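Encode chain A's predicted structure.
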Amino acid sequence: MRFCHTGSNSAFLKSVLSQFLLHEAHKDKKQINRPGELFLRVFCISFRRRMKKLDYIDFEKVDALLEAFNKATGFVTAILDLDGNILSKSGWRQICTEFHRVNPETSKRCTISDTVLADKLAEGEKYHFYECMNGLVDVAVPIIIGGEHAANLFSGQFFFEKPDLSFFEAQAEAFGFDREGYLDALSRVPVVSKKKVETIMDFLLNMTQIINEMAFQRFEQAQLNKEIKASEEHLRKTQEIAKLGSWHLDIVTNKVIWTEQLYRMYDFDHSLPPPPYTEHAKLFVPESWERLSASLARTMETGLSYTLELKTVRKDGSNGWMWVRGEAERDEGGKISGIWGAALDISERKHSEEVICSLNASLESRVAERTAQLESANREMEAFTYSVSHDLRAPLRAIAGYCHFLEEDYSEKLDDEGKRLLGIVRGNAIKMDKLILDLLNLSRINKSELTNVPVDMEQLARDVYAEFADMTGAEGYSLEIAPLPSIEGDLALLRQVWTNLIGNAIKYSEKSPIKRIEIGSACESGFRIYSIKDYGAGFEPEYTDKLFNPFQRLHKPEDFEGVGIGLALVHRIVSRHKGRTWAESAGPGKGAVFCFALPFEDSSIAD
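Encoded structure for chain A:
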């Protein structure tokens, strides 16, 4: 389809463009899949881009140029856009202005002729001759702006040879022209040789090149200005968000330039010039101004940059803080010609630092106070531990001792009930002494220093089990020990772990028909895991978290003796080694597995 440049063509194009804009406003995100819709979009985008480039032709200068050309050569000219709209014209013939372009029918012929001529140029010809439908010869040269065909420069309204009067007489009669006036206008149309026209067209071709270059330069300048404006806006917004301002001092002219954000930071009117040097001093406290002045002088003299944090004075008298930096600018000869500077509002950061310093000072004071309280409490605890160790255990030992004397020296004077009661007193005194001893051991775990050495865990477990077997506490039991990896730890404390766990396994398996103890190990995520499994009393799984708390027991004292300190000791010792403890059981009577995991790093310890 070809758009014909008819008289109503401009209205038609406006209609097409309006439809496109309406479509743009209501279109959804669906892909364009109709050929007509695709053509509409491509055409209108091209149309808008072409019209935009035509805006950069300076038609005042072009009109003056073409008018001078007409007076010098007698050739008429006109510039038409690709839609047939006349943008500029000079010296048109009377036969065209008063007859051909006035009558609707002949005017339509002019438009059709312009279209044909324009289409020829669109095919790439540098210029083209064409005899219009009204009988005159026209010629056109394309105007290319930035590589895009934007308009055409027309000339013509002449003859290559003497015209056929009969054709024009018939045309005057057909369209109702005043015959005498029409033929008089015809006689004024020049006859020009084709060679002369070609010379003139070569000149016009050069003229259009000048027009093209002028328009493209203005177009490029406009694009550059747009990019500069966008860049400036981007910089302004960035500085506003970052609270960062910048400035420049030209040492030669003593001219100072501030960015808008710097005005805002110092609370000055940005429509006025930067304040004079004497006003700058009022922006800072005296000590900060002296540092800034000295740094500026040093930079201007030596070229060394500076970075400072300065205390400022606001208009309301309050203080703020600025981070400032300045760097020297040198000319082509290496001489210092100016200074570039930047300033960042760091008032919020400084306020936060002051708050943090205040909190740290308060925290240090509270830590010192708390440390003194803890030291006092530790001293009291040590005194209490000493008292428990000596003052409380001494009477218990005396009670147990006198009970023993009574049993040996006065047993014949006591009946069976008296002997039974005396045994209960003695047994409870011994039990109380053991409880106190366990509590002392539990309190000492956290205070004692760890003496870490490589520990052969397999041999240690065997030694502990052997001690129980020697005390007849493991008669009828079987022990299965898998290979156990060594570990770095405190030998005495790890012995206590094995003693408590193996002792528990033996104790809680007393009433079980299966008296077997299995000791194994595993390795997982930087930990070596050791496990002790028995087939004894077991426990309810829901009470697992209570097992390792002091004095927490899941069995009745009459069923199994103990005070509930052993597993608490295990947990505390393992925790001191940065390990963890846990236990598993399927339920009462189904045995239990106690595990502890210790971290390892030293690859030199053999597995």
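Confidence is low (pLDDT under 50) at residues 1-33, 35-48.
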